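Reopening this one. Same input as before:
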Amino acid sequence: MTLAFIAIGVVIVALLWDLVLPAAQEAWARHRARRRRVDDPLDFDPGRELRAEQRARELLRSCVDAEDWAMYRDLGFLRVWGRLADGPARGGREGAPYAYLVYPHKPIVAYLPQTLELLNEYCVEFPDMTKPYGSSRLPDSDDVLAKWMALTSDERRLVHEANMHLPGRQVDPRAVRRDLWRLQQWERRRLRQRGAVS
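Same output, byte for byte:
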């Protein structure tokens, strides 16, 4: 009787082994591939990433005006004034002045400066195509520059082709309002500094 139980146990283990072993091997291979991706020095080099960001900042500085550069340097985002006559309408406010906040690796946020009402989020992506080196996304300043260039050169196309969402889908509205407040404070300081210099 005991011998029969042992034989049945061996058969069950052998059958389970055939079923479980391939799945376990596949899970182990996926785990090793994930670890290799994270730990592989070719995928991430802090020095290379830092140098890329420094070059990107210099490029951004050379492309935008001094005021915009100071805004990005001090606040970490850019404001771009909208130029479309019909603008991103909301609540019958067509033609009202509007602007965008351009963040690195976040959606572009449209808003009305006079009321600080958030209008839309425009999701656009500019991936880094220089693989195998570098990360899958552009350095922060390059991402901001790409969005700035798209908005200032062909705003209508960017707005038309972007994935549009209502505010709060990806960017926290409280954080955007805090940034708008920081922008107002920053502009007031700049005006005071200009007045003191004059």
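So the earlier flakiness isn't reproducible anymore. For the record, The two ends are 104 Å apart (CA to CA).
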